[in-house]
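**Fold in tokens:**
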Amino acid sequence: MSKLTLIEKLGFETSDKVVIFHIDDVGFSHASNLASFECLDFGVASCGSVIVPAPWFLEAASICKNKSQYDIGVHLTLTCEYDLYRWRALSSVNPDSGLLDSEKSLWRTTEEAVANVNPKAAEIEMRTQVQTALDSGIDITHIDTHMGTVMSPKFLPSYLKIAREFKVVAFIPRVSRKQLETEGLGSVADVYLKMFDKLEESGIPILDHMIIDTMGDSPNKTDYYCKRFAEIKPGITHFLFHAAKMSPELKAITPDSASKRDLDYQAFTDPKIKECVEKYNLKIIGYREIRDLVKKES
């Protein structure tokens, strides 16, 4: 008898198009909190993840504590990419940890973080971020990665260890050699592919597809996303976007992406987006369903 796949374990057919509509960067600003929870209430977005060291984390945590229905994970972060809007590590200010740059904030780029952060310090910081979210009243369903940093081979073992430790789902997409090469990871492609095969064999949930290139300049993001919905294949797809309401705060923090984030918010509160979900027969789930399945099987 063949082993059931993740999509079958969740009660779907292998031919179904199952989508996790995921909001990244919850808590990074007041503007993102306003937009993110409105999108979740609207009903197409199914979950999101919060940046725990960010200045507006406590507001996000307070909302989640009062409304436990929200499916929220931790957007594990070792970086802070903004010019003048910075946040620090939660676990240490020790220079030997490598966590902080010359401004005593997390590194601006993934490349700098990978080059400088001590792996043990990264693990402690990741654990601290998850524990802080739990202590703040959030029912954490999953962990994922801000700017892809913690999925570097240097930090990936700790990332998976944290997921096991807290009994939550780690965002892990199935990737091809071509995708790894496109992301500049061709030199470690063999390591990644072998490791992902072993992870799946051990029963760790692996998502079939991911759509992450959603910060485009399209003036009509609803139509843009409907076109992307048409491309979704059978299997489980992680579809991320970044929602924030336009405001002086948002413009000051991230002038380059403010309008894109606002357009994401508008698109995922547009009734037409629900019509597109129905048109392409997309089945929406969050990470809570996968988390609960993993707990049941463990």
